[in-house]
Amino acid sequence: MMLSPDQAADSDHPSSAPSDPESLGGADAKVLGSVSDLEPVEEAEGDGKGGSRAALYPHPQQLSREEKRRRRRATAKYRSAHATRERIRVEAFNLAFAELRKLLPTLPPDKKLSKIEILRLAICYISYLNHVLDV
């Protein structure tokens, strides 16, 4: 069945309903609002002067010392350099434990010891050597 243009405008058929948000009115207009309605809450609650971005991203000279340090540490270059320094530190630490381990007498000599076991054994061995010297 074909409808005349007048009947189509009065129809409840979905294809005849207006599609632009302004003509919808009411709650539907709010739901289907424009993209500008999707502004962040910080900007919407600002003082209206457009300074809310400055509040979120203050000038570097306005940052506290801690905030400057935090931002500097957040860079990929800093993280990479820090990881390299940490790797070198851990390797030196493990090398020192390996050297200490070689100086300690154990049976069997190649027995694997944890770091805490190495330290405890070193303390006992130093105490023993002191006792031997004192006698």
Provide a descriptive summary of the structure in words.
There is one protein chain. The protein has 135 residues and is mostly helical. It has a domain of 67 residues: Helix-loop-helix DNA-binding domain (MYOD Basic-Helix-Loop-Helix Domain, subunit B). It is built from 8 helices and no strands. About 26% of the residues have low confidence. InterPro entries: bHLH_dom, HLH_DNA-bd_sf, TAL-like. This is Helix-loop-helix protein 2. One of its GO terms (biological process) is peripheral nervous system development.
Summarize the model shown.
With 135 residues, the protein is mainly alpha-helical. It contains 8 helices and no strands.
What is the element layout, followed by pairings?
Layout: H1 5-10, H2 21-24, H3 26-31, H4 41-44, H5 52-56, H6 65-73, H7 76-103, H8 115-134
Mean pLDDT, rounded to whole units? 73
- Poorly predicted runs of 5 or more residues: 13-18, 20-48
User: Which CATH-level-2 architecture of the domain at 66-132?
Assistant: Irregular
Strand content: under 5%
Listing every helix as H and every strand as E from the N terminus to the C terminus, the arrangement reads: HHHHHHHH
Instruction: Name the CATH superfamily assignment of the domain at 66-132.
Output: Helix-loop-helix DNA-binding domain
Total DSSP E strands: 0
Shape: elongated
What is the helix fraction of residues, given as a range?
55-70%
CATH class of the domain at 66-132: Few Secondary Structures
Determine the CATH topology of the domain at 66-132. Answer: MYOD Basic-Helix-Loop-Helix Domain, subunit B
The whole-angstrom Rg is: 37 Å
- The assigned structural class equals mainly alpha
User: What's the number of helices?
Assistant: 8
Distance between the termini: 119 Å
Biggest sheet: strands, sense, closure?
A: none
